[in-house]
Protein: DUF1653 domain-containing protein
Amino acid sequence: MVRNARYRHYKGGIYELICEATLESDPTVTMIVYKASNGTIWTRPAAVFFEPVEHDGVKVARFTLID
Structure:
């Protein structure tokens, strides 16, 4: 994980990864905190942030590092 790096979502949006966080209700879950270009802050489990998804019948990264 590269903090303050920019990632492109497979649908085209650009996001800045801010940090990792521990889910309070389940300390075994690492969350990714990231920010959209419009300033909105999002979180998603690291396992989901970095998993591949199917798009137009092809497996692609959900987020791709662009920096």
About this structure: The beta strands are 6-9, 14-22, 30-36, 41-45, 52-55, 58-61, 63-65. The longest strand covers residues 14-22. The CA atoms of residues 2 and 39 lie 19 Å apart.
